[in-house]
Amino acid sequence: MSSSSRSPGTGQGSGQGAGRASSPPGRLLRLCGVPGYEQHRMNDVLLLRPEPREIQATHNENAHVVFFPGDIQNFHQEMAMQPDASPWLSFSLERVALSLGVRFPGRHVWLVRPSRLHLQKFSCYTNFVSCDMFGAPKHSPDYGAVRHLRALLGHAMERSAVAEPLPPLGGASVPSPLPTGFSLILVGFSKGCVVLNQMVHELASARTDPELRQFLDSISDMYWLDGGHPGTGDTWVTDKQALAELASSGVAVHAHVTPYEVRDPARAWVGREHRCFVKTLEELGARITQKLHFEDEPACIANHFRVIEDF
Fold it and tell me: PANTHER family, from UniProt (predicted)?
């Protein structure tokens, strides 16, 4: 496939109506092999452009949302060909993009596919965080997730001909200004939350770089949606020093969970870490909201996915 193309997953795939996605022509754009700050760090990216009338209503064409999907989520056409994935076609990247477009009108919506899907199902965000073959992370303070996202988004904006792309990273002591009104919302779902966690671990070191500090200051909100991964810890950030950096940043933190993750007795640490994350941020004076979704329903993977539509 060419590096830039109209997404073939829109309205295609299994051929069943329940799995179809629909969008006005030209709004969805699939970008393949977009590089980050190192040429070998590349991710496929899906862009949903905002409606012109929505931009006119907000008077800002430089508002953006970046979404990091979880396990098994992929482009619509690829999911339709995988028996384990096809039951979840309504949560393909294209369908999620359209849902987020409704949730955040007037914003460019970017979905970042992990660089590798082990066995076609386990998302591995190795360009953002060190992880094992199943995607369980090993966090560090200097892996480069912030720098990779900054460069990846800039290159994707250039390739998709966004009116005012981010200026390239140049390592200048006085960075080029960001586009007028540039603002960013980050959303991680399930395994995708490992990217947000890694960025939190990097905040202290990234803020010493003028270009990265400027980029971080543009982030208004971060959404954790039912974070989870196959490891035995570090599902939520619990390091107080890292959380103090997040609290002092002024970013609005939103923690949305379901019983599937935080009430699983076989993975009790997930609930404990979530409670520690929320409690510590509250004590530090962070701007944080939290919600337990589907509290009175049985814990199930269907509701785990539904939080994408319900948050």
Answer: MITOCHONDRIAL PROTEIN C2ORF69, UPF0565 PROTEIN C2ORF69
Task: Give the residue carrying structure tokens 């948050």.
Answer: 311
Cα–Cα dist 150/145, whole Å? 9
The CA distance from 19 to 71, in Å, is 18
pTM flag (> 0.85): yes
Phi–psi pair at 215, nearest 5 degrees: -65, -45
Q: CB within 8 A of 28, min separation 6: which ones?
A: 6, 7, 10, 46, 47, 48, 49, 94, 97
Residue type, position 308, single letter: I
Specify the DSSP element, H or E, that contains 308: helix 301-310
In angstroms, the CA 260 to CA 228 distance is 10
Q: Which residue has the tokens 């991680």?
A: 188
Per residue in 141-173, pLDDT (tens digit) is 999 999 999 999 999 999 999 989 999 998 777
The DSSP line for 133-173 is TT--EE--S-S-HHHHHHHHHHHHHHHTT-SSPPPPP---S
Q: Provide the β-strand partners of residue 112.
A: 45
- H-helix segments, 188-300: 193-206, 210-217, 240-249, 259-262, 268-283
Residues 6+ apart with CB under 8 A from 71: 121, 122, 123, 135, 190, 191
Q: What are the tokens at 15?
A: 């051929």
pLDDT at 7 > cutoff 60? no
Chain centroid to CA 28: 17
Question: Do 196 and 225 meet the contact criterion of CB atoms below 8 Å apart?
Answer: no
